[in-house]
Automatic annotation (TrEMBL):
Record keyword Manganese present: no
Annotated keywords: Methyltransferase, S-adenosyl-L-methionine, Transferase
Protein name as catalogued: SAM-dependent methyltransferase TRM5/TYW2-type domain-containing protein
CDD domains assigned: AdoMet_MTases (cd02440)
Binding site for S-adenosyl-L-methionine: Y136, E160
Signal peptide (residue range): none
UniProt similarity note: Belongs to the class I-like SAM-binding methyltransferase superfamily. RNA M5U methyltransferase family.
Domain of life, source organism: Bacteria
Length: 292
């Protein structure tokens, strides 16, 4: 069982992940769910609860289905809602509110979202009217602030493979017309931009525009050659790479260096105290990249 508490601490979401002996049987799961509902009934209203069911069969009262590395995840709501609200405040870039569903990715350290937003926005140095690609965008943390910087004449292409996180991003960016959420794998979406750049943003093209910068926050394994090679072909003026795994960051940095990219600056943050993990925000540029 995990408990998710947003930075403001005014609500909480309990996430129960049952063992296969329970989750593989709809009847057994229902029986346990009824027990859990009774046990949780005395909690304050601000406490929500759900079950993350990792199997492919249908479950009762299903609220969403998403694909993960462990197969299909189906969320069974026990009480309240399946998401929490996160508020991110930056002295330089303002305050934004986000919906983050269930087990969706969100930085654990309470100061991490604002810290990373400020580092990414500083490195990207977005100008009004620019087109920015935000790969592995999750619930749209960076996309929201990048869209403000790009303005109404710019565009932010928010790319996320996880369907639940994409829904959150669409919700969080629904009032930002210059932000387009694209659900799909990063290499496949970038490939579509390369193959059909003239078609519209929402149809998988670039609307005849050039990508000025790419922001990416890949999983701990790193972006890898497939994504990096397509981003390289895209030819942005800069790449802002956020990494929570030093070894993967070093590996991808080596690939970029071999292909003419220079690591101009890097900031390193300890956002997971008492662990070996450090989070890096690197700025890469390449002579001639992104030129008209």
């Amino acid at each position: 069982m995990n408990v998710t508490t947003p930075g403001h601490c005014r609500e909480a979401l309990i996430i129960i992940t049952p063992v296969p002996e329970i989750s593989d049987s709809p009847e057994t799961l229902k029986s346990y769910a009824d027990v859990w509902r009774r046990q949780l009934s005395s909690l304050p209203k601000r406490v929500s609860a759900m079950v993350a069911v990792r199997r492919s069969t249908q479950t009762i009262q299903k609220t969403k289905t998403q694909t993960s590395s462990n197969g299909t995840v189906e969320n069974l709501q026990l009480r309240g809602r399946s998401w929490v609200r996160e508020d991110v405040s930056s002295e330089r870039y303002g305050t934004q509110a986000f919906r983050v569903t269930g087990e969706g990715y969100w930085p654990v350290h309470r100061d991490a979202p604002a810290t990373l937003v400020e580092a990414v926005l500083q490195a990207a140095d977005v100008q009004d009217g620019q087109v920015i690609a935000d790969l592995y965008s999750g619930a749209g943390l960076f996309s929201t602030f990048l869209a403000d910087a790009a303005g109404q004449h710019g565009a932010v292409l928010s790319v996320e493979a996880d369907s639940s996180a994409s829904r959150d991003a669409r919700f969080n960016l629904q009032d930002v017309p210059q932000a387009i959420v694209l659900e799909g794998k990063a290499d496949e979406v970038v490939s579509s931009w390369l193959d059909a750049p003239a078609i519209g943003f929402s149809q998988g093209g670039l609307h005849g525009r050039r990508v000025d910068a790419v922001v990416m926050h890949p999983p701990r394994a790193g972006a890898g050659r497939a994504v990096l090679s397509r981003v390289h072909e895209l030819g942005p003026g800069k790449i802002v790479y956020v990494s929570s795994e030093t070894a993967a960051f070093a590996q991808d940095t080596r690939w970029l260096h071999e292909h003419g990219w220079k690591l101009d600056a890097v900031q390193v943050f300890d956002l997971a105290p008492d662990t070996h993990r450090m989070t890096s925000v690197g700025l890469f540029t390449r002579p001639g990249a992104g030129s008209a």
